[in-house]
Each structure stands twice: as C-alpha cells, then as structure tokens.
Amino acid sequence: MGMDFKLTEEQIQIRDIARKFAVQEIAPLAAEIDESSKFNWPLHKKMGELGLIGMTVPEEMGGGGLDTLSWCLVIEEIAKASTAVSNYLTLSESMLNYISHLGSEDQREKYLAPIIDGELVCSFAMTEPNAGSDAGAIQATAKLEGDHYVLNGQKMFITMALQAGLFVVVANVNPGLGKDGIRTFLVPKNTPGLSLGKQLDLMGIRGTEAAPVYLEDCRIPKENLLGSADGFENVMKGMDGPGRLGAASQALGLAEAAFDAAMAYAQERSQFGRVIYTFQDIKFILAEMSTEIEAARGLICKAAWRRDHGLSYTKETSQAKLFAGKMCVRQVSNAMQILGGYSYSKEYPMERFYRDAKIHQIWDGTDQVQKIIIAKELLKEMK
Ligand SMILES: Cc1cc2nc3c(=O)[nH]c(=O)nc-3n(C[C@H](O)[C@H](O)[C@H](O)COP(=O)(O)OP(=O)(O)OC[C@H]3O[C@@H](n4cnc5c(N)ncnc54)[C@H](O)[C@@H]3O)c2cc1C
Q: Are both 123-229 and 232-382 of the same fold?
C-alpha cells in the first residue's frame, strides 16, 4: 500500500467545486457573517445542494461515500474564505459520523437525510461549566424512568446551538460508574425541558452562534439513546474522525489565506524605495510560513490516508490537529507582521483571521489534550 502524493481526478474535481464556491459565494459574505455574528442558512443549504455535507457518509445511507482526504480538501478550501462557514461543515460531518456509525435504523432514517441536505443543523453538547478537557467528569445525568430518559444538566460553548434542530447530548446514566456511565442521546430542539442560553459573544468564528444549553427534566423516549453500552469510548472515538481532522484542515485553510494575503502584499508594498519582499527578513518569514503550511498539510493527508485505508489514525489525527492549530496561530501572526498597520484594521480580513485562529488550539481537545492522546498512543505502540 504505497502513499501517492498525487490527488485523484475525483479529489481534484471536488476540491475545485469547493474552491469555486468559496471564492465566489462565501468570501464576499465572510466579513458580514463575522460582523453580524449570524449563522448563514443560505450558504449552509447551498453546501448541502453541492454535496459538501455528508461527503464521508456511505452512499447507501445517502451520503457521498467519498474518502476522508477529499473531505479535508473541501474544508481547507472553505476555511480559506471563512472559518465560521467551514465549521458548519466540520460540525455537520462530525455529527453525521456519530449518527451513521452508532445510530439505529430508525435514527439514521430520520436524521441523516435532513442534515446531509443542509436543512437540519445538529449540535454536539458535551462540554459543561465544570468539565471541559476532562470530558469523563461531565455531570449531566440521564435517568431511565419507564420508557423515557430524563436529562438534567448544563452544557457550555455549544457551537450552532441557536440554529440547531437536534442535539447530540452527552450525559451520564449512572454517575456512580464514573465515565463508564456516559452515553450519547439524540435530543430534538423542541423537547420540553431543553432551553438555550444567550448567544456567546465570541472573539472569532462569530458566525457560529454558540450558546449554553440547559436540560431540566428533559424527557426523551428511550429509543433516543445513540449507540449502546460503551458510551464514553464511542464519544472519544467519534471525535477522532471528521471533527478533529476538520479542525486541523480549517487551521490549514486559514493559515493559507493569511499566507496568500501576505505574499501578495509583500510584493506590492514598497518602503525605503524597495518592494518589501526584497528584504531578507520578509522573504524568510514567507519561506517559513509556506514550509510550515506544507508540514501541516502532510500531517493531515497522512492521518486522512490512514483512516481511508482502515489503519489506526488516532495518533496521526491528534498530531495533525496539534501542529496545524499552533502553526495557524503562529503564521497568521507572521502574516500580520508583514501587512504592518493595515493588518490591524477591520477594513481588511487579516484581523478576522487573527481572531479566528486561536480557537484551533482550544476546541476538539486543547493542545495539551492532543499531547496526552499522542503520548498514550506512543506508549501503546511501544507495547
Ligand atoms: C468557540 C467554542 C466552541 C466550542 N464548541 C463546542 C461544542 O460545540 N460542543 C462542546 O461540547 N464543546 C465545545 N467547546 C468546548 C471546548 O471543546 C472546550 O473549551 C475545550 O475542550 C477546553 O475545555 P475548557 O474550556 O473547559 O478548558 P479546561 O479543560 O478547563 O482547560 C484549561 C487549561 O488547562 C489545560 N489542561 C486541562 N487538563 C489538562 C491536563 N490533564 N494536562 C495539561 N493541561 C491540562 C487545558 O489544555 C487548558 O489550557 C467549544 C469551545 C469554544 C471556545
């Protein structure tokens, strides 16, 4: 099983569809999405029509049946235009991954198609005020009462909560068991007992309408349990795939957007009677940026390739997410340096890029959490 660095015709085709859509339809709206902090439904629906949602869901379940690498290429292209919009895709694919892998026939029947079509947004409600990195310590409970589970708890930082029609909620069926009691549940938005807090006033990715989610005696039919007994393992495994690789690809796309802007500016701008690209300091920054961008791409491609070939990809995915997130923050900052004062004005996208970058070191597991995962995998390999 060799590793081919050439993209297939199909991969190029789907990447180009995403690139065209990003340049023509997302980029002109990106600043407005950020400014208004509003989820953009028309763009989301169009991405559904273009087949960009559910790309990795098997064809027999109504998805695109495409490989992970194709999907990463799409996220990268969309993220070059808007990190927020690329996250619509990442979250959707991640939730589709949960439902297609763990869901019952009925659950798949009911929820896959509307998410894939871009008609339904599904949010992931795991984090709590007292349980972030330590996801096994969540306090939300799901008590079985007859034919229903009764959910109670508070969820924090839930991306797209304000537009979601469905939530994958992580709760504990038996707190006495610790993380072994953790399960996932499908909770439709209109379920009595589920309410939303105020939209969070975020630094970046402002078009994602994140909010807290409250569960107060929220009763759902017991059939809404997603997956079976090994809940916590499933939750963690589910984050490995499109979620974390999507976050890494978003970081890559954003760094590239910053690089493109810096490269162009360095050749337009003159100071001391010279184009600034001719200063060694400036061209060395750009040389380093492009090298680190390629390194991130290499890690993402390798993790995606391993997933597509049925090989373990947990370590590689965390390595890709860790490196791409840090690289993105570093390189957007470098790009700002090249643009000088103009990078600091809201008239240009660079300040949005800067605000959008940092999240990639925080969500889907912070840098420290990725290191914990990598170290655990290294030990496994040793054994
Ligand atoms: C914009 C945004 C959107 C989000 N969207 C979602 C969502 O849709 N759904 C969802 O469930 N969650 C979401 N989150 C939550 C996100 O996943 C958490 O913020 C993240 O996992 C970190 O948790 P925390 O913020 O509680 O930080 P903490 O876990 O309290 O961490 C604080 C610091 O301590 C470090 N730390 C913690 N444990 C260790 C350790 N063992 N060793 C070394 N260092 C450690 C962390 O790395 C971090 O630097 C979102 C967050 C943000 C900001």
A: no
Compute, in angstroms, the gap from residue 201 CA to the centroid of ligand 1.
17
Ligand 1 centroid – CA 133 distance (Å): 5
| Ligand 1, atom 14: closest residue by C-alpha | 157
Q: Return the ligand 1 atom nearest residue 135 CA.
A: 21
Residue 357: strand, helix, or coil: helix
Residue of the CA atom closest to atom 43 of ligand 1? 368
**238/251 Cα distance (integer angstroms):** 20
Give, for ligand 1, the residue of 89, 90, 92, 133 to mutate: max count of ligand atoms closer than 8 Å to Cβ: 133
Taking a C-beta distance cutoff of 8 angstroms, is the pair 358, 351 a contact? Answer: no
> Which class in CATH covers the domain with range 9-120?
mainly alpha
Helix ranges (DSSP H) in 202-243 = 231-238
Task: Give the residue carrying structure tokens 């373990």.
Answer: 312
State both tokens at 268: 């337009």
* Mean pLDDT calculated for residue range 134-161: 97
Choices 1.20.140.10, 1.10.10.60, 1.10.3720.10, 3.40.50.970: CATH for 232-382? 1.20.140.10
- For residue 322, report the distance from its CA to the centre of ligand 1, in Å: 14
**Does residue 1 have a pLDDT over 60?**
no
CATH class of 123-229: mainly beta
Look at residues 245, 238, 240 and name the one whose alpha carbon lies nearest to residue 102: 238
Cα angle value 241/317/180 (rounded, 5°): 60
Residues with CB under 6 A from ligand 1: 123-127, 132-133, 157-159, 202, 205, 210, 359, 362-363, 366, 368-369
What is the pTM assigned to this prediction?
Answer: 0.97
pLDDT in tens, 252-289: 999 999 999 999 999 999 999 999 999 999 999 999 99
Provide the pLDDT confidence category of residue 230 given band limits of 50, 70 and 90: low
pLDDT reported for residue 323: 98
Closest Cα to atom 32 of ligand 1: 133
CA–CA gap between residue 358 and residue 328 (Å, rounded):
8
| Domain limits, the chain | 9-120, 123-229, 232-382
pLDDT of 229 higher than 80: no
Nearest CA to ligand 1 atom 50: 157
Q: In angstroms, what is the span from residue 158 Cα to ligand 1's centroid?
A: 12
